[in-house]
Each structure stands twice: as C-alpha cells, then as structure tokens.
Specification:
about 240 residues, alpha/beta, Rossmann fold, eight-stranded mixed β-sheet, 9 helices, globular
Length: about 240
C-alpha cells in the first residue's frame, strides 16, 4: 500500500483509480409498476420471481401492489415462475391465479406450459437474492430470442435512504440479499453475462410522505433513487450460426 501511495504522488504517473470512475448516464425516474404494465402490452411475458413471500401476498393484493396480477390484463400471455412453492400454491388456491408455476429456472426440466421464447422477461427484485448470478442469467437466456427484452430491477446501493441510515450508525438490508448493486456493478454484470444494455431507469419505493423527502434528493441527482431498472437484450452473436 505504501508503494502504491508513492506511485499516486508521482506527477508523471496518473492515478490509475481514475479509470474506475464511471460517468452516470442521464436517467428517467419512473413508477416501476406502471412502466412494466405499459411495456408488456400485447406481448408474451415471463415473470421470474412472480410470487414473492407468502406472508406478503394478502397485503399486496389488498393494496393492489401484487405485480403479477397487475400485468395480466395488459400482456398477451403472462407466465410466472417462482421457487417459493408455498406461495405459488397459496396464490392458486385463494386467488385463482393459475398461470404461475413452481420452478427453478436454473434446473433442467421446466413446466411444459412455458413457451420456448418470450417477448419480455421480467425479473424484478430477484437477482440480489440469487447466490450464483452467472448461472441464473445464463438460464434466463434460454427463454430469449434475438428480439426478446430483459428487464431486471435491483435495489440501489446508493439510494439516499442508505446514506441517512449509515449516518445514524446502522445498515439496513434484507438478510436474504447476497449482493448490493450500483450502476457500474450492474452494468458490468450484464455485459459480462453476454447482454447488451439498452436503457436505464430509476424508481422510488415507499409511501408518499417519505417519498416527498426522497424527491428533494432526486432533483439533485436521480441516482439517489431507491431502485435501478436495466433494459437489456442478448448479444446477437450468440444467434449467428
């Protein structure tokens, strides 16, 4: 470390860490559910992680924030998969949602009801829970054609809430999260996994009261937002035989 510091002080040797500084692109703040519903109109959709936690199902149904149900009136075909078998069965029995399937997409056999390819692959707030993200993303590719669009959303590691919580001496994170993502780490992950990034969006979570406070910071820089959404497609080279 001492040698490295000496190198940094040498005028003829620029700081190599400057190459690690990424310019944040201009980004639009969106309502994530409204955005998803608009982009799936008339298209076939595979919703990965469609069920979530069983104990949250009734709450989200009551608040009209259960995403899979909101997608169904808009999409031409809506299929969902989730590894939470209990939540899948509960949704089928209580809410009569039958286009969802218990499945781990990283495994070989998949439900016969699933299509070969989908127009839209939607993966909201899932990647941060997955231990082997590389295998997970490779498995998603199996459902994508050259025209398919992949939408992945993750919590933003630099959201203003995290900064304020840290100032109070705490770190607030879901214990099931394996990773924290930012613009540069998510971009690097997707490109390394063989995807081309087309667009970025950011979104806010929470109620309108704390949302108002957040928006003051969002006006300064949208990258203080709660969540990041990346829109990707597979690299076309993989389809060239």
């Amino acid at each position: 470390m001492h040698i490295f510091n000496n190198v940094l002080k040498t005028p003829k040797c620029p700081d190599p860490r400057a190459r690690w500084r990424w310019k944040l692109p201009r980004v639009k703040v969106i309502n994530n559910h409204d955005f998803y519903c608009s982009i799936v109109k008339g298209r076939s959709v595979l919703h990965v992680g469609c069920a979530g936690h069983k104990e949250m199902v009734d709450i989200r149904m009551h608040n009209n924030t259960f995403l899979h149900k909101k997608l169904m009136p808009y999409a031409k075909i809506t299929h969902g998969v989730d590894i939470n078998k209990e939540a899948i069965e509960y949704l089928k029995e209580k809410y009569n949602i039958n286009n969802i399937f218990y499945s781990d997409i990283t495994q070989g056999d998949q439900p016969v009801e699933l299509l070969k390819f989908y127009d839209i692959i939607l993966v909201p707030e899932v990647v941060e829970h997955v231990l082997d993200v590389g295998i997970f993303l490779k498995s998603i590719k199996k459902f994508m054609s050259a025209q398919s669009v992949l939408l992945i959303s993750v919590p933003n590691s630099f959201k203003i809430h995290n900064t304020l919580t840290t100032l109070r001496g705490y770190e607030e994170v879901n214990p099931d999260h394996k990773y924290c993502f930012s613009y540069s780490t998510l971009k690097g992950l997707m490109e390394t996994a063989g995807f081309t990034v087309d667009r970025w969006y950011v979104t806010l979570y929470g109620n309108k009261i704390n949302g108002l406070f957040k928006r003051l910071f969002i006006k300064i820089n949208p990258w203080f937002a709660d969540g990041i959404i990346v829109q990707c497609r597979t690299n076309t080279e993989q389809f060239v035989k």
